[in-house]
Each structure stands twice: as structure tokens, then as C-alpha cells.
TrEMBL record:
Official protein name in the record: Cryptochrome/photolyase family protein
InterPro entries noted in UniProt: Crypto/Photolyase_FAD-like_sf, PhrB-like, Rossmann-like_a/b/a_fold, UV-DNA_repair_photolyase
A GO MF label: lyase activity
Keywords: Lyase
Ranges for region Disordered: 157-183
Species name: Haloferax marinum
PANTHER family, alphabetized: SLR1343 PROTEIN (PTHR38657)
Pfam families documented for this protein: DPRP
Gene3D superfamilies: 1.25.40.80, Deoxyribodipyrimidine photolyase-related, DNA Cyclobutane Dipyrimidine Photolyase, subunit A, domain 3, HUPs
Length: 498
């Protein structure tokens, strides 16, 4: 049997590689033209694949590495050389991919065995046994279940420290004179330089800057990135995980998602490193628990909810939102300080941290009325860590509230949230204290207008009562001004003058 190693399965410890020594890898170029993908995403995937090929060869594997337009064309070449070959591949998490690959292989006279993908901490069978037939899952319950089952951050039957959640010690903003520890940089070697040139030539329409490529492309670099995070940024990760600071794109976030999603790091080793820091007294529990929750709770949860909600999830649009993305998402040009910072981070690095993604980029699109699929495409092309299985539940479910499978209420807020969690509003030409009138913060009128427009769906949903008590207090005159301001802002969004 030959192990077919996909571009997001770049880990030598995976089960199929322990049993076979023939490997197939196909670097398919055509997918990079379906959307104007960020050049750093393309460089990352192709460079990491080529480095993994070299690493496997050094370890003694016989690797057939094919560069082709598509998987189909790559498999044509493979089967011309090795007719009837039997392949084994770890089941890819994106919807329908395994069956599509099986069809491609079988129609060329080969066979494809799909096996468990052990780059996740939990299996589909485990989630399905936990969830049963229900479609209303709570991440918190799943998270506790996984911790109990795995013993991660547990003291016997109890959570370490006695609590499941230390968020009351988090959600802080740093003092004005604070500067975050620097993010690690992994500068391009010859292999990466070659890929950078290829990407520049082959994908001239790619959206984003290729200037500063600093992402880990090998397992060794990814491990160093993990160590760097644990030693330098983990301690402050918890308190500042929801904060936004002008001019700072990384803060104390781990920047590990791209490496984890490629398979360069396993979720298990990441969580183990973080828990060890806590056990050794090198990191506080509120930060460690906060981080473990993201990986053990959210990341695994998203994978399974996606799996069980597709294909409907990708098409969901329960609020019937249809607007195009405001021009600022492409140009970064806007007077809104929060939006211009967040789009700038994506353009420069293919990255924005979680709160920028949720409470700026998707929150603004949500209250503005953007079509969830248009937003999903933008996230998918713009981020180095974007893959359909993880981007779609986060953008369509969590960010756009296009379905209630992931949350019972939308992550929608006025400018108050950004003001509370960032230092942006103080230096923004828009006034966060104003809802209508000249220079009123765009988030405000759009937020109230959003609640009004979607009252039929939202008023009845749990946890929205307080918001609608504020809606009920506004008189007709106020609503007229809010609607006029919201319409004006949408026009500005289209004109690129926000
Ligand atoms: P940290 O803040 O350091 O968090 C640690 C790790 O937890 C991450 O590396 C990631 O592996 C995991 N994690 C945390 N939250 C989530 C989550 N909601 N879903 C999955 N994993 C999570 N994550 C992606 O990997 N790819 C995406 O395309 C993606 N798109 C997103 C779009 C939106 C609208 C939102 C709200 C979130 C999205 N996320 C996505 C989840 C999360 O924002 C990123 O995983 C995180 O910001 C990556 O940065 P980091 O590694 O510095 O994370």
C-alpha cells in the first residue's frame, strides 16, 4: 500500500506512516486560482509540503511527489506509472472530500482506504456517541466531557484548580505602557524562496502581501513556535485574549492555528506543552485553562459540528442577509480604526486574532447585512489557517448567525464592545458615543438597525430579552434617524467611503 499524504496531514507520527514506506504527495496548483488566496497561504501550504517530502525521504520513505494542475491529473500520472496501486489516506475533515478522492482513485483502477484522521484529539465516533441524535450541542458540555475522558488538566475527577472556567480572571485590557512579547519569525529558506517566486508568478491576482513571510513550514519550526509561545506569551494569553491594541497584530495569541491545521503540530502535543507549563509552575491556570478550552473545546467541537451539519451549514442564511462585502474588506481603506486595523492584519499576515475575527470583521459584516457565503469566501481566501471544515462553522455559524447550530444568539454588538476591549476608539474619527448624526460610529446605527430588521427571528431567541428591552424604548423619531444612518452607511460601504 502507498500512503497518500494530503497537504494538511504533514506529520510523520500518523498511523499510516508507521506501517508503510511508500508515499504519494500531489501538489495541485489549480485550487489556488479558484479564489484570490492570500499569497502567504499558498506559500505556506506548498513550502510545508515540499519540506515534508524532503523530511520523509531523509527518514527513508520512498516519496512520489507530483506537481500537477489537479488531483485528477496528478493521479493520472501516478496510475500511469503504478497501475492498480492501493492507496491509504487519513479521512480528510472537509465535507465529502474522502468520497471524492475514492471516486478519483477507483475510476483510475486503484483502491483507496480511508482511515481515522489522527491529527484530531477526538474521533467522529466519540462525538457521535456523546451527542446522540440531538442537534443542539453545547460547546461547554463537550469541553468538560473531553477533559474528563482524556484527563487533560484534571486532578482526579475534578478540573485542575476546582473550576472549569477562569474567564472572570481574563477579558482584561493591557495597561497603556504594555508591549507584547515579540512574535517568533521563521525566515524563508531556499525551498520557501523558490515557492515564493512560483506563487508570485503563478497567482498574480492573490489578495494580500507576500512581503513578510514568517510562518513555520516544518515540524521543527512549529515545535519551536510552540516553545516560544509557552515561554513568552502563554502567561498573558488568558487576561489579554479578548483585547485589541493599536499597531499590534499578535498580542499574546499563540499563532499556532496554521501549523496545527497543517498537521505540523498535533492538538495533543500543544495542549500537553501548555498543561506541563502549568504543572511546572511556569504559567497561571487562567491562561492555561483558557488556551486548553480553545483547542480541546472549540477546535474539536467545530470539526464535529461541521461534519454533522454539512452540506446545509455552508448554504445557511436564516437571516436572509444579501449585501456584498463593504469595499473596505478589500482595500483596508476606512476611517474606522478597528476595521482598518483588522483588515490590515489580514492583508499583511493572513492572520487576525480571534476577537478581531469575531467582534470586528464578522460582527461588522453581520450588522451591515453581508451574505454569509460572501463573508465565508473572504475569510477562506484571506487567512493562512483557513480550511473549509474550520472556517465555515466559525464564519457561517458563529460569526454570521446564519444558523443557530453553534450559538443561541448572534455575536452582534454596537461600538461599545470594541471600545471596552481596545484602545481604538480614542483615536478614531468616528464617535463611539454617537448613534446617529455626523461622525457617529458606524457600528451603532447598524447594530440597532440589525436588531430591528431581524426582530422576527431574534426577539424570541434565548438571551436577547435585554437587548429588545432597549429596542422597545426607542421612539419612532429615533428609529427614523437610525434607519437613515444605516442606509447612508451601507451606501458608504459600497462606495468605499466608510
Ligand atoms: P489562539 O488564540 O492562540 O488559540 C489557540 C488555538 O485554539 C488556535 O490555534 C486554534 O487551533 C484553536 N481555536 C481557538 N478558537 C477556535 C475556533 N473557534 N475554531 C477552531 N479552532 C479554534 N480558526 C482556524 O483555524 N481557521 C479559520 O479559518 C478560522 N476562521 C475563523 C473565522 C471566524 C469568523 C472566527 C470567529 C474564528 C475563526 N477561527 C479559525 C478560530 C480562531 O479565531 C483561530 O483559530 C485563532 O484566531 C487562530 O489564532 P491563534 O493560533 O493565535 O489562536
Amino acid at each position: 500500500m502507498t500512503v497518500w499524504v494530503l497537504g494538511d496531514q504533514l506529520n510523520p507520527e500518523t498511523t499510516p506512516l508507521q506501517h508503510e514506506d511508500h508515499v504519494l504527495m500531489i501538489e495541485a496548483h489549480n485550487f489556488g486560482e479558484r479564489l484570490p488566496y492570500h499569497p502567504q497561504k499558498l506559500v505556506l501550504v506548498f513550502s510545508a509540503m515540499r519540506h515534508f517530502r524532503d523530511e520523509l525521504r531523509e527518514r527513508g520513505y520512498e516519496v512520489t511527489y507530483i506537481q500537477a494542475e489537479t488531483f485528477a491529473a496528478g493521479l493520472d500520472r501516478f496510475y500511469d506509472a503504478v497501475p492498480g496501486a492501493d492507496l491509504v489516506v487519513m479521512d480528510p475533515p472537509s465535507h465529502g472530500a474522502g468520497e471524492r478522492f475514492r471516486h478519483l482513485v477507483e475510476s483510475r483502477g486503484g483502491s483507496l482506504t480511508l482511515v481515522e484522521n489522527d491529527l484530531f484529539l477526538t474521533t467522529p465516533a466519540e462525538f457521535d456517541a456523546w451527542a446522540g441524535d440531538t442537534e443542539s450541542y453545547r460547546q461547554e458540555h463537550w469541553y468538560r466531557h473531553v477533559r474528563r475522558e482524556t484527563g487533560i488538566l484534571m486532578d482526579g475527577d475534578d478540573p485542575a484548580g476546582g473550576e472549569w472556567n477562569y474567564d472572570d480572571q481574563n477579558r482584561e485590557t493591557p495597561p497603556g505602557d504594555w508591549t507584547p512579547p515579540s512574535a517568533p519569525r521563521f525566515l524563508p529558506d531556499d525551498v520557501t524562496e523558490e515557492v515564493v517566486e512560483f506563487v508570485q508568478e503563478r497567482y498574480p491576482d492573490a489578495w494580500g502581501s507576500a512581503d513578510e513571510f514568517v510562518w513555520p513550514v516544518t515540524r521543527d519550526e512549529a515545535r519551536r513556535a510552540l516553545d516560544h509561545f509557552v515561554e513568552n506569551r502563554l502567561a498573558d494569553f488568558g487576561p489579554y485574549q479578548d483585547a485589541m491594541v493599536g499597531g499590534e497584530w499578535a498580542l499574546c495569541h499563540s499563532l499556532l492555528s496554521a501549523a496545527i491545521n497543517l498537521g505540523l503540530l498535533t492538538p495533543h502535543e500543544v495542549v500537553t506543552a501548555v498543561e506541563t507549563a502549568y504543572r511546572d509552575g511556569k504559567a497561571p491556570l487562567n491562561s492555561v485553562e483558557g488556551f486548553v478550552r480553545q483547542v480541546v473545546g472549540w477546535r474539536e467541537f467545530m470539526r464535529h459540528v461541521y461534519r454533522r451539519s454539512m452540506p446545509e451549514l455552508a448554504e445557511a442564511n436564516q437571516l436572509d442577509q444579501t449585501a456584498s462585502l463593504p469595499a473596505a474588506y478589500w482595500t483596508g481603506e476606512t476611517e474606522m480604526r478597528c476595521l482598518s486595523e483588522a483588515v490590515g492584519h489580514v492583508y499583511d499576515h493572513g492572520y487576525a486574532h480571534h476577537i478581531e475575527r469575531l467582534m470586528v470583521l464578522s460582527n461588522f459584516a453581520l450588522v451591515y447585512g453581508v451574505d454569509p457565503q460572501a463573508l465565508n469566501r473572504w475569510f477562506h481566501l484571506g487567512f493562512v489557517d483557513a480550511y473549509h471544515w474550520v472556517t465555515t462553522p466559525n464564519v457561517v455559524g458563529m460569526g454570521s448567525f446564519a444558523t443557530d447550530v453553534l450559538s443561541s444568539k448572534p455575536y452582534a454588538s454596537s461600538g461599545n464592545y470594541v471600545n471596552r476591549m481596545s484602545d481604538y476608539c480614542a483615536s478614531c474619527p468616528y464617535a463611539v458615543s454617537k448613534t446617529t448624526g455626523e461622525n457617529a460610529c458606524p457600528f451603532n446605527a447598524l447594530y440597532w438597525d440589525f436588531l430591528k430588521r431581524h426582530e422576527a427571528v431574534l426577539r424570541g431567541t434565548g438571551r436577547m430579552g435585554l437587548m429588545y428591552s432597549h429596542v422597545d424604548r426607542k421612539d419612532d423619531d429615533e428609529w427614523e434617524k437610525i434607519e437613515a444612518r444605516a442606509a447612508e452607511l451601507r451606501q458608504m460601504g459600497r462606495d468605499g467611503t466608510l
